[in-house]
Amino acid sequence: MRNILLCLSFLTPFLLCSQINISGKIIDQSTNNPLPFATIKTNHSDYALSDSTGEFSIHCQELPLKITVSYIGYITKNLTIASADIDKIEFYLTPKTEKLDPIEIDSDGNIASKIIRKAIRKRPLNNPKSKLNSYSYKTYNKFKITGKNKGKLESKDTADVDIEHIFNETHSFLSEKISEYQYLKNKGEKETILATRMTGFEEPVYNVLGIKIQSNTLYEEDYTILDNKYAGPLSKRAIKNYYFKILDTTKGKRPAYVILFQPRRSKRVASLEGVLYLDMETLAIQKAIAEVRGELNIMATHNYHYYEEQNLWFPSNQEVSIQSGKGRQKVALFGGRISIGRLGNTKKTSKENNGFLISKTDYFDITLNPPIQLSAKRAAIEIHPEASNRPDTYWEQYRTSEITEKDENSFPVIADIVKKQNIEHKIRVIQNFNLGYYPLSIINFDLTYPIKYNNYEGLRLGIGMLSNEKLSKRFRIEGYLTYGFRDNAFKYGVGTGILLNKDARTWLNFNYTDDLSEVGSFLYLTDRRVYSLFEPRLVNIDFYYKHQTWSSSLQYQILPKLLSEAQISLGDIYQTGGYRYVKNNIAHSSYKLAESTIAIRWSPFSEFLKTPDGYREVQEGFPKITAQYTQAYKGVLNSDFQYAKFGIKAEYTINRLNESSTSFLLEGNLASGDVPLTHLYHAYPNAPTKETIMQRFSVAGRSSFETMYFSEFFSNKLASLQIRHTLKPFKITSWLKPELSFINRYAIGDVDNIEDHQGIEFKSLKHGYQESGIEINKLFAGFGLSFSYRYGAYHLPNFGDNIAFKFTFYLKL
Q1: pLDDT value for 347
Q2: Whole-angstrom Cα distance, residue 7 to residue 427?
Q3: Is 469 found in the same domain as 420?
Q4: Dist CA 164 CA 161 (whole Å)
Q5: Residues forming beta bridges with residue 133, ordered by sequence position
Q6: Does some domain include residue 430?
Q7: Any signal peptide, and if so, which residues (predicted)?
Q8: Cα dist. 420→4, 6, 76, 408, 430 in Å?
Q9: What share of the chain is helix, strand, coil (3-state, %, to 5)?
């Protein structure tokens, strides 16, 4: 138990220690007005900025403490604090007698707004990505999460180490990274990670490398901090999102306006506040400071260097720091529930807990407009094969930030703890769990098989497995075995795969399956990689067919953004009910099908990280387009029918800065030829055929028609559209943030030669199907409620038959 608590403490460090908190306010002595974004530093290298009201808070470990307060245009003030018995300090700063270059400033801020509008229009001339044809540079990044404790512990035994020792003499997490960036207009930017190391881990944790800690520019529409997006202060929407005011001007060879920006709609849009230093001549950014205050207090800085030949300000360094705020928000780095730091207080009134995250990046070897060639097949981020094996001499050659004694202590101490507490395995478990597997030694257990339920098999228990890289990196075996307690039958599948090309992740697979499939279902081969912990619709399915299928497939990553799979199969089909397909006056209840299928999945606006294990999507972009074509061959290996099937779907999601979102799912299906009902299409109905609303109460699906009854409609031509609009979560408590979604679903289709399908009654969708509903999600442990109503051409006479009332289940691990 002690080991478990230690591991959890390491991964989610609440730093319950004694600290001194100094708070105060910065004030203009001549006007008594607060001074926003003044810089506060201590002699212990701690620093902070005053907020928009001049308020600040800074932590220290010991007294006496020397504080330095500086502000452009004012005399710097120093103060030594010897006692902790001070509630709040007021710093009155005196304007400098030597005036800066004067400019006219309107009291209502119109001049500042005009300057910003002009700066926005001149973005193409100031943004390196639009002004330059190419550039390249290297960066050194140091990223750490740490805590500052007062006490120290004598014990050095890492097998029984106290968490206090970890944070006194080491960081809870520290990583270093050296990268090379190359940019070519119309081809985008590529990052090559030349060197990387992380405390405690021999191999890098790729989830961390894919996180966008901080945007490298403020010229884009959105600004990103730890994958959270904020409105850019120079975006096209900047005037709507921000209020601007000129604070000052600077002197020197390249004088600048110092412009304050504050959110106009902070409750509606994720906004920043801070200051921009804009070159008076070009209106380019010379320096920027941005802040977010809330559950976490975030401060980001950007500094630029002027290149006279190109008349361009190019980044020179940047930094982001995150400290505890009003809440208890986690900073999750490894995926799932394993987080490396919880930067927040356990109590709102606590002043003792101070988690601290800082990421600093220095730019060097900058070359503007060099000759560069970038391949279209590249990933956005690639890892050099020797990145995790660089010697100390390599790091010393490129390191721009000093490695302190505390930094060095982090690696061996935490490495020992990671090993003894088996933390790498725990991270591996979480990451594989999100893909549907649980790793154990040389195999991964497939989580889609252990327990299921449906209306045909009843309770379905099973076990599945897939070998992992510990057995072989070039060969895999897989299999599963299940048993249905209502139909009293075993089902199973076995398969093997051979890796033909490591870079393209090309696998040649061979499989045999003896199982059930739902009548009318259409599954895309490339969606095998899309795992859902729980697909509630499966509970209600009662119309299946049996099949015994031999198949061989070739998986090939054509491009990072283009995944493909081709398959040939031969299957024997048997009915579980009384269905018969009549063709040429012959009724077929069983038949043989020989098919070939090709499928692609295209994610044109997603960003991918290339690792030794393949490609990982690190930034999701839309639309995502999936297409699949299947051809059946009559007479080939005694196959009974010939037909062609085509399906295409497009997914698009708009994620807004106000935390609302709208998603669209558009799908079209077409089948021609001699197609039995088993291989036609349905619109994924999810209403059990029961008399009352409460008898139909179950769990809503992800993208199913909740009021459409099972086996009510089948089509060989089908089109559907689903629209979901989700409002900003309602924050009731720190753990209860329900989401309200409005949903509309439409489907239209038709079926040819309906008389050929005997033994079952169904209708076509030629008049168009419509349903609308609402969902209140994440009420408790991922569960919520949904209500849907069916209307239009297929509205039923009994009002209650048009209603679906169900649970929802959305759990993000």
Answers
A1: 42
A2: 12
A3: no
A4: 8
A5: none
A6: no
A7: 1-18
A8: 11, 11, 51, 20, 18
A9: 15, 45, 40
CA-to-CA distance for 25 and 34, rounded, in angstroms? 7
On whether both 609 and 705 belong to a single domain, the answer is yes
d(CA 481, CA 491): 6
Closest alpha carbon to 712 in 755, 791, 765, 752: 765
CA 317/CA 364 separation, integer angstroms? 9
Distance CA 464, CA 443 (A): 10
Whole-angstrom distance, CA of residue 689 vs CA of residue 340: 48
- Bridge partners, residue 554, by sequence: 508, 566
- Name the residue among 455, 460, 518, 456 with its Cα closest to residue 688: 455
In three-state form (DSSP H/G/I as H, E/B as E, the rest C), the secondary structure along 769-804 is EEEEEEEEEEEECCEEEEEEEEECCCCCCCHHHHEE
Whole-number average pLDDT of the chain: 84
Domain that holds residue 484: 435-501
pLDDT confidence band for 66 (50 / 70 / 90) = confident
Q: How far apart are the first and last CA of the chain?
A: 24
Query: What letter does residue 536 receive in the DSSP assignment?
Result: G
Examine the fold and report which residue of 407, 425, 443 is the final residue of a domain before the chain moves on.
Answer: 425
What value does the CA radius of gyration of the chain take, rounded to a whole number of Å?
A: 31
Instruction: Record the tokens describing residue 616, joined without a space.
Output: 């990982």
Q: Which two tokens stand for residue 411?
A: 């690696």
Number of domains in the chain: 4
Q: Could you report the per-residue pLDDT of 272-326, keeping only the tens digit for each?
A: 888 999 999 999 999 999 988 777 788 899 999 999 999 999 999 999 988 776 6
Q: From residue 476, give the alpha-carbon distance in Å to each of 499, 530, 544, 726.
A: 8, 20, 30, 41
The number of residues making up the chain comes to 813
Tens of pLDDT, residue by residue over 253-272, are 999 998 989 888 655 677 88
Q: Which amino acid is at 483?
A: Y
Taking the C-alpha atoms of residue 454 and residue 485, their distance in angstroms, rounded to an integer, is: 10
Same-domain pairing of 478 and 531: no
User: What DSSP string describes 431-442?
Assistant: HHHTTTEEEETT
Cα–Cα distance measured from residue 169 to residue 173, given in angstroms and rounded to the nearest whole number: 12
Looking at the fold, whether 453 and 416 belong to one and the same domain comes out as no
Residue of higher predicted confidence among 11 and 666: 666
CB 440 within 8 A of CB 468: no
**Domain termination site, one of 425, 457, 486:** 425
Pairing of strands 20-28, 89-93: parallel
Residues 515 and 489 in one domain: no
Residues 361 and 446 in one domain: no
pLDDT 10s digits, 617-646: 888 899 999 999 999 999 999 999 999 999
For the beta carbon of residue 753, count every other beta carbon within 10 angstroms. 11
Buried b (16+ CB within 10 A) or exposed e, 458-475: eebebebbbbbeeeeeee
* Cα–Cα distance, 164 to 506 (Å, whole number): 48
pLDDT at 400: 84
Residue of 649, 665, 762, 770 whose CA lies nearest to 716:
762
User: Which tokens sit at 354?
Assistant: 């101070």
3-state secondary structure of 125: helix
**What separation in angstroms does the CA of 688 have from each of 727, 789, 805?**
29, 15, 12
> Is 59 within a domain?
yes
Handedness of CA 95, 98, 99, 101 (dihedral sign): negative
Which of 771-798 are b and which e, b meaning 16 or more Cβ less than 10 Å from the residue's Cβ? bbbebebbbeeeebebbbbbeeebeeee
